[in-house]
Write a structure and sequence with these properties.
201 residues; alpha+beta; minor pseudopilin epsh fold; five-stranded antiparallel sheet; 11 strands; elongated
Length: 201
């Protein structure tokens, strides 16, 4: 019987680990990459929430349009308009109203249900209107958008404090600009065109 003996190598390879400097550099790279990802995620999350808030407002305006177009006449045959009213003086709130006095504007006491409230992270930054096809914005402008049967058209009225003025005929629109409280330069808009189209940009 033959036995095979393997001779052990006297020189075994010395095992080495990371030096302290290599470990610190690796940790620094991982931390930089993680912070970059988290910063992008926070920015993305904020933009998504702002878009979601703008979409919610557009759906509320669409609800007012639906009420106004589908409204049942009163006993006297009257069909009142329904609308939404925005005022930057109360930047967290907006109102769904029934135009009981038929002046196509929001008046105190015409509210339906509870006042709508924006997410506390966002606010109504300004209201813009089309003036001779030029975008004119103001943080002091209040505006209402009403809808009255049988038209799907929006009745846009706005005021800068000197009294309400109605939108002119033609390519006219009103734009409600929303922004995060912590970064007002980032905005999302809900635009209501006189034709009744509602867009989020």
């Amino acid at each position: 019987m033959f036995f095979l003996f393997l001779k052990k190598n006297k020189y075994t390879r010395k095992q080495e680990g990371f030096s302290l400097i290599e470990l610190m550099v690796t940790i620094s790279i991982v931390l930089l990459a993680t912070s970059a990802v988290l910063a992008q995620y926070t920015s993305f999350n904020s933009a998504t929430l702002l878009k979601s808030q703008a979409l919610e407002v557009s759906l509320d305006i669409r609800t007012a349009q639906s009420y106004g177009v589908n409204v049942k006449a009163t006993g006297g045959g009257d069909r009142f308009a329904y609308g939404i009213y925005f005022n930057p003086a109360t930047p967290q709130q907006y109102v769904l109203f029934n135009d009981a006095n038929d002046n196509l504007l929001y008046d105190a006491g015409e509210e339906i249900g509870n006042t709508y409230t924006l997410d506390e992270r966002f606010f109504l930054k300004e209201v813009c209107v089309s003036v001779s096809s030029v975008r004119n914005c103001s943080a002091a402008r209040a505006a209402s958008v009403a809808f009255k049967r049988p038209n799907f058209d929006a009745i846009i009225a706005n005021t800068d404090g000197s009294g309400f003025g109605y939108a002119l005929q033609g390519e006219t629109w009103v734009e409600f600009v929303f922004a995060p409280r912590n970064k007002p330069s980032v905005t999302r808009s809900v635009i209501v065109y006189q034709s009744g189209q509602i867009a989020v940009e």
